[in-house]
Write a structure and sequence with these properties.
The chain has about 350 residues and is of the alpha/beta class. It folds into 4 domains: about 1-30; about 35-145, Nucleotidyltransferase, domain 5 (2-Layer Sandwich); about 155-220, Methane Monooxygenase Hydroxylase, Chain G, domain 1, CATH 1.20.58; about 220-353, no CATH class. The chain has helices at about 1-20, 30-35, 70-80, 100-105, 115-125, 135-145, 155-185, 190-220, 220-230, 240-245, 255-265, 290-305, 305-320, 325-345; strands spanning about 40-45, 50-55, 60-65, 85-90, 110-115, 270-275, 275-285. The strands form 2 sheets. The protein has a 5-stranded mixed beta sheet with strand order 3-2-1-4-5. Strands 6-7 form a two-stranded antiparallel sheet. Helix 7 (about 155-185) crosses helix 10 (about 240-245) and helix 9 packs across helix 10. The chain is globular and about 60 Å long.
């Protein structure tokens, strides 16, 4: 008799937990149901990150230091909250997210790294008026639950090294250009001599980084093969090819050329409504700004030395398109060509461009 009562009690408990978690008691054991539907939103800054856990068990939040020690504390906190199967979401803000994302991916968590513009649009859809780190972490958790963003795939180690080298190279080039302009604004000999010394040191570092980049390609034959494919396009040099490969490491995995252009923020955006609003078409610029910067000068070169793109640009200009819009269209065309060449593995052929 006692065993029958125990059996009935267990059955009632299973049904009660099934109703709480909205699952079929015949398919999901209560021990697993307790771990379902967990979403973690993370808002990062330079020194700390705010975490907000949203699950069927309730809500929880905490602040951690943005260090390796803080990463371990986050893992222990999730374990104490019994959040085993959790979808973690964060914004691609600067470089603060990369170390944590790599750490969590190494623990086999599902990670999503999304464009901050998507989070901002989601906040506007909720009419959210407050913006703090804690509020943003909760917002990102709700976004993850509502939108189910795609998982983030970390680039291979050789791509991460290339990305670090290319970004450092661009930083050195930008700094040198700034110092060169600064030298023209000063007439004091003691100042110009100091600036000249700085520029000379920067030139030495730039040359050294260029050698390291070339050596990195030589050390990775497949990466070098892909670079050579890209440089077969008139207008794309080794530096631009390196930027494209480092900033879009999975370029050949995109489903379409339109998706690649959207990732780089090179999709056209029109602004028209009714009879009163007739805005000029512009680039949306909701994407990787480094890719757009890397493609600007190659587009200018391609307008002069790439016959295929020159004909393409002339056709747009004759149709009345603004010159800046045409340059953006050539940038997009270069990226689409790069996408097609890497997908096919065949060098550029003007007869099929």
């Amino acid at each position: 008799m006692a065993s029958v009562e125990v059996g009935r009690y267990r059955e009632r408990r299973v049904l009660r937990q099934a109703r709480m978690h909205k699952v079929d008691p015949e398919e999901t054991p209560p021990s697993e149901a307790a771990h379902m539907a967990s979403f973690l939103g993370i808002d990062l800054s330079k020194e700390t990150f705010h975490a907000f856990l949203l699950s069927d068990r309730g809500e929880a939040k905490r602040v951690f230091p943005n260090t390796s020690k803080g990463f371990d504390q986050l893992t222990a906190w999730l374990k104490n909250r019994r959040a085993v199967d959790v979808h973690i979401c964060m914004e691609a803000t600067g470089a603060y997210w990369e170390a944590l994302a790599l750490y969590l991916h190494g623990l086999n968590h599902r990670i999503s790294v999304v464009n901050p513009a998507r989070i901002k649009a989601f906040a506007q859809s909720e009419l959210l008026r407050t913006k703090t780190d804690a509020v943003d972490a909760a917002l990102i958790a709700r976004f993850s639950k509502s939108q189910d963003p795609e998982p983030w795939i970390p680039p291979p180690p050789e791509i991460r090294v290339l990305q670090a080298l290319m970004r450092h190279y661009e930083h050195l080039k930008t700094t040198r250009a700034q110092q060169s302009v600064y030298a023209q604004s000063s007439e004091a000999t003691i100042v110009t001599a100091s600036i000249a010394a700085v520029i000379a040191a920067l030139d030495e570092q730039i040359a050294q980084v260029e050698r390291k980049i070339r050596q990195h390609f030589d050390d990775h034959p497949d990466l070098k093969r892909r670079r050579d494919l890209l440089t077969s396009i008139p207008g794309i040099g080794e530096a631009t090819a390196g930027s494209i490969l480092s900033e879009i490491p999975h370029l050949d995995r995109f489903q379409s050329a339109k998706a690649v252009a959207a990732f780089a923020g090179l999709s056209p955006r029109e602004r028209r409504s009714g009879t009163s609003i007739h805005g000029r078409p512009r680039l949306c610029k909701t994407g990787n700004a480094r890719v757009r910067k890397a493609l600007y000068m190659p587009a200018m070169v391609a307008l002069r030395f790439n016959p295929t793109l020159r004909v393409f640009a002339d056709r747009l200009l004759s149709a009345g398109k603004h010159k800046r819009l045409v340059i953006g269209a050539v940038m997009r065309k270069l990226l689409v060509l790069a996408y097609g060449i890497l997908r096919s593995g065949v060098a550029f052929d003007p007869n099929y461009a």
